[in-house]
Write a structure and sequence with these properties.
Length: 151
């Protein structure tokens, strides 16, 4: 599904993204290695047996990327100019290998761009849930979005 033009977005609009993703051990280990994050939380199963979680947890930067990535097809694919930032990034519960993530996105702010009349600034609130409907991540994401071209 293609992304939406700035003009097609409305405050309060909610997207329940149809794409879901089961997170694998490979996802977590590869992402942690690629980003040079050697934290025992992500890589050392024996260490984690002695913690409150009892097993490795998924790298939160992967969770953030997955949460935003799942939203792209329905919101910004082909219509985004730039990602402007992430705010209020939270991970209230850990994500584990084998968990399946689903994402819900809400448009929470729209404003005209002062420097680019062909675009507007949109702020999305993304929320990621595991298969138990527990919130595992959330963030506000602002982006520069193209307006619909004149016919």
């Amino acid at each position: 599904m293609p992304g939406l033009w700035f003009d097609e977005l409305k405050i309060g609009q909610v997207f329940e993204h149809p794409i879901r993703r089961t997170v694998t051990e490979t996802d977590n280990v590869l992402f942690s290695a690629m980003t040079h994050n050697p934290a025992q939380l992500h890589l050392d199963e024996e260490y984690m047996k002695g913690t409150e979680y009892g097993r490795r947890i998924v790298n939160s930067a992967f969770t953030l990327g997955l949460m935003v990535g799942i939203s792209v097809g329905d919101t910004t694919l082909g219509t985004a100019i730039a990602n402007l930032g992430w705010d209020e990034v939270r991970f209230p519960k850990p994500l584990f290998h084998g968990d399946t993530v689903r994402v819900v996105t809400e448009v929470i702010e729209l404003r005209d761009s002062k420097s680019r009349p062909e675009a507007g600034i949109v702020t999305f609130l993304h929320k990621a849930y595991n298969q138990h409907d527990e919130l595992v991540g959330s963030c506000k994401r602002s982006g520069l979005q193209r307006r619909k071209p004149a016919p």
